[in-house]
């Protein structure tokens, strides 16, 4: 039976509407896979689209059908409306879910689909137009009596005009792309120079990412929190809110960790924010899932920021605390069904935490990392340690992280009865998440999970900048953490020795004696201990003080086997995961943000190891190295030019973000080895200094 709805977003649904038989997902990666799951749950067949870079993508494998739509650049594939419509016609797809990003917030997309007789699974074009433009959305919010941030809503002509407006609004200011989102096209300026420079960068990124270089300026609220309200509406005028999400842990205006509910809000504030969000949605005739974002003060004051007229990246935390499948609801509302959930039905159950796992190097200021996932082993989904683990992903072992798209690998989500329990489960799941082949941010995410300020809920959007000044550095294990890593390394070494003795038949006989004293070098720390235990039995590690006297003892039980990437077991009845990667004569261990090369020796081996010379690192102080794979957009200096600390040397673009590389010290440029348009690998030499 052919789907009878003709109109996608204007006016009421056609009477007698029924569920779709086939839908197309106009997106890729993790979100495409997520939508496919809900569609299949509803018995709906799915069509995936893919660029040449994504022909082997997981979403292509999961869908019932797949169709290629062009070359890797999004502007030549995922952003072309005509190609999406042609794909619908050739496959018989009756509706399109846009996911997030790409075409999801372009009014022209649902309009074009409607003309082609195809349903858009999302809000109507008028609502997208009203809220998708950040300038117009603020005007609409003010009209709907929603609290708004002070700022200048007119269009900014040029950099000089931006400086003038910023001075009028008052520093600090936020320069934001009118058509922006996802942290792109956004810059904070604390003075005229930053306003001038930020205008150029924001405009350029906005043009590259959204095809619209308009920006606006608003007051930047210092020490703010980012809190958003999830709304859901149907085509009959019914609109509800599904509680809030806090997204204050951000880097470069890009959300990194989200949670629901917020540790800041009380029921009164939650109700006030929810009702304002619904009022705004009602004012623009909103009829799908959407998010109204607010900037909140520590005193629970709040101001409208923007409305995202699409499914949010962080929607899983809302789904876990409400039990409502947002993708399913979007499909049902697009099919003309009446929203069956009443506001009184919405209950927040427990707490959910989401970490965005990115292919980026936290030790290099979170610069993107590309390459092949030589190993990808996420934690087991489902019930775990009294809670739930969920992993939304669009990759698999052997997949490639491409330079063309966002570097997200997965969204790891945990749900438990309390915030503390959800954080503990998130930390445990991160420890069990194995990724090799590209750099990733799991060590940083793990470090955040253990941070006292995060655990106490004392958050702000400046959290990362304030708590990780000078960039992220792996946690250095001390005290109990040092003992834990040492004990795991000693247990692994002991197990390996026992297996080798068993294989070579050296295990039996009263004359056989093996030394039980071990010396573990965890990073630069020396730990001495006695180890006892046999294959298949608990292993006991007793630490010795400097006088050789026994002190703390740890009892470890695990079924770990040599070669397994994660040591999973119990340490004094507490579940523990430690990642284990073999290195020459030792192990690289990772746990709760700690990373340490660990070597286990007998006493004689330790004495000999101490005599080995240390290999010196090469001197790169007179070189500017490319910190990430990227495209050289501009070179600002030439040979023989004198430079000062902070001077812009060049601009390198990666993952659609433009990064200015600046001089770290005064000097003179000796040679420039790259030119605009060059594609560079990590650590490629860009220029030399005298």
Please explain how this structure is put together.
The strands form 9 sheets. Strands 14-13-10-11-12-15-23-21-20 form a 9-stranded antiparallel beta sheet. The chain has an 8-stranded antiparallel barrel with strand order 25-26-27-28-29-30-31-32, surrounded by 4 helices. The protein has a 5-stranded parallel beta sheet with strand order 3-2-1-4-5. The model is unreliable at 1-17 (pLDDT under 50). Helix 12 runs antiparallel to helix 13. It is an alpha+beta fold and 690 residues long. The termini are far apart. It is globular. It is 27% helix and 33% strand. The chain has 6 domains: 22-121, Rossmann fold (3-Layer(aba) Sandwich); 135-149 and 225-349, 2-Layer Sandwich (D-amino Acid Aminotransferase, Chain A, domain 1); 150-219, Dna Ligase, domain 1, CATH 3.30.1490; 357-448, D-amino Acid Aminotransferase, Chain A, domain 1 (2-Layer Sandwich), CATH 3.30.470.20; 479-506 and 513-609, Glycoprotein, Type 4 Pilin; 623-689, RNA polymerase II/Efflux pump adaptor protein, barrel-sandwich hybrid domain (OB fold (Dihydrolipoamide Acetyltransferase, E2P)), CATH 2.40.50.100.
Compile the SSE list and pairings.
Layout: E1 22-25, H1 29-41, E2 45-51, H2 58-62, E3 65-70, H3 81-91, E4 95-97, H4 108-115, E5 119-120, H5 125-132, H6 134-143, E6 151-152, H7 159-169, E7 173-181, E8 184-189, H8 192-210, E9 215-219, E10 225-233, E11 239-251, E12 254-260, H9 267-283, E13 289-296, E14 302-308, H10 315-322, H11 326-334, E15 351-358, E16 360-361, E17 367-368, E18 371-372, E19 375-377, E20 382-384, E21 387-393, E22 400-401, E23 408-416, H12 419-431, E24 434-436, H13 442-450, H14 452-456, H15 463-467, H16 479-503, E25 517-522, E26 525-532, E27 539-544, E28 550-558, E29 566-571, E30 574-583, E31 586-591, E32 594-601, H17 603-609, E33 623-625, E34 630-635, E35 642-643, E36 648-654, E37 657-662, E38 667-672, E39 679-680, E40 685-689
Parallel strand pairs: 1-2, 1-4, 2-3, 4-5
Antiparallel strand pairs: 6-9, 7-8, 7-9, 10-11, 10-13, 11-12, 12-15, 13-14, 15-23, 16-17, 18-22, 19-24, 20-21, 21-23, 25-26, 25-32, 26-27, 27-28, 28-29, 29-30, 30-31, 31-32, 33-40, 34-36, 34-39, 35-38, 36-37, 38-40
């Amino acid at each position: 039976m052919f789907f009878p709805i003709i109109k996608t977003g204007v006016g009421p649904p056609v009477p007698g509407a029924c569920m779709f038989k086939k839908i197309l997902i106009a997106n890729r990666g993790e979100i495409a896979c997520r939508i496919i799951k809900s569609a299949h749950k509803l018995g709906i067949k799915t069509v995936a689209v893919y660029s040449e870079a994504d022909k082997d993508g997981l979403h292509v494998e999961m869908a019932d059908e797949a169709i290629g739509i062009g070359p890797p650049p999004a502007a030549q594939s995922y952003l072309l409306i005509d190609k999406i419509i042609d794909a619908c016609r050739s496959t018989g797809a009756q509706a399109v879910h846009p996911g997030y990003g790409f075409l999801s917030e372009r009014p022209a997309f649902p309009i074009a689909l409607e003309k082609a007789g195809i349903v858009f699974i999302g809000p109507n074009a008028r609502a997208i137009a009203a809220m998708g433009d950040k300038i117009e959305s603020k005007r609409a919010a003010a009209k709907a009596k929603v609290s708004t941030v002070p700022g200048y809503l007119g269009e900014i002509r040029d950099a000089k005009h931006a400086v003038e407006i910023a001075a009028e609004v008052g520093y600090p200011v936020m320069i934001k792309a009118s058509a922006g989102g996802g942290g792109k096209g956004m810059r904070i300026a604390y003075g005229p120079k930053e306003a001038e420079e930020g205008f150029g960068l924001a405009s350029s990124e906005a043009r590259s990412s959204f095809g619209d270089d308009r920006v606006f300026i608003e007051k930047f609220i210092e020490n703010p929190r980012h809190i958003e309200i999830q709304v859901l509406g149907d085509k009959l005028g019914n609109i509800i809110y599904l509680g809030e999400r806090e997204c204050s842990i951000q880097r470069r205006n890009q959300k990194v960790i989200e949670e629901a509910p917020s540790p800041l809000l009380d029921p009164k504030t939650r109700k006030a924010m929810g009702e304002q969000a619904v009022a705004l949605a009602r004012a623009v005739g909103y009829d799908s899932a959407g998010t109204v974002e607010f900037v909140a003060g520590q005193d629970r004051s709040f101001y409208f920021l923007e409305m995202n007229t699409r499914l949010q990246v962080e929607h899983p935390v809302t789904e876990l605390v409400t039990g409502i499948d947002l993708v399913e609801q979007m499909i049902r509302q697009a099919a003309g069904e009446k929203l069956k959930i009443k506001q009184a039905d919405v209950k927040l159950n427990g707490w959910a935490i989401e970490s965005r796992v990115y292919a980026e190097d936290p030790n290099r200021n979170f610069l993107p990392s590309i390459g092949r996932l030589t190993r990808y082993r996420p934690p087991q989904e489902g019930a775990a340690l009294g809670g739930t683990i969920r992993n939304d992903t669009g990759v698999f072992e052997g997949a490639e992280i491409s330079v063309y798209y966002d570097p997200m690998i997965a969204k790891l989500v945990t749900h438990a009865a309390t915030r503390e329990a959800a954080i503990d489960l998130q930390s445990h799941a991160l420890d069990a998440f194995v990724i090799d082949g590209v750099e990733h941010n799991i060590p940083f995410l793990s470090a955040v999970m253990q941070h006292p300020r995060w655990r106490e809920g004392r958050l702000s959007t400046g959290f990362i900048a304030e708590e990780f000044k000078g960039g992220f550095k792996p946690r250095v294990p001390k005290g109990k953490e040092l003992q834990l890593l040492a004990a795991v390394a000693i247990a692994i070494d002991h197990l390996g020795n026992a297996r080798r003795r068993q294989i070579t038949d050296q295990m039996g006989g009263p004359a056989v004696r093996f030394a039980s004293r071990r010396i573990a070098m965890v990073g630069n720390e020396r730990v001495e201990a006695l180890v006892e235990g046999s294959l298949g039995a608990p292993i006991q590690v007793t630490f010795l003080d400097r006088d050789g006297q026994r002190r703390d003892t740890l009892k470890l039980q695990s079924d770990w086997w040599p070669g397994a990437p994660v040591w999973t077991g119990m340490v004094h009845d507490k579940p523990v995961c430690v990642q284990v990667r073999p290195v020459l004569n030792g192990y690289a261990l990772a746990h709760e943000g700690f990373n340490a090369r660990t070597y286990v020796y007998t006493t004689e081996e330790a004495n000999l190891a101490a005599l080995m010379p240390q290999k010196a690192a090469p001197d790169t102080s007179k070189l500017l190295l490319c910190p990430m794979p990227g495209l050289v957009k501009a070179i600002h200096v030439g040979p023989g030019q004198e430079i000062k600390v902070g001077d812009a040397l060049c601009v390198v673009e990666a993952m659609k973000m433009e990064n200015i590389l600046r001089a770290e010290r005064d000097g003179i440029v000796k040679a420039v080895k790259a030119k605009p348009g060059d594609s560079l690998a990590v650590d490629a030499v860009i220029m030399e200094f005298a």
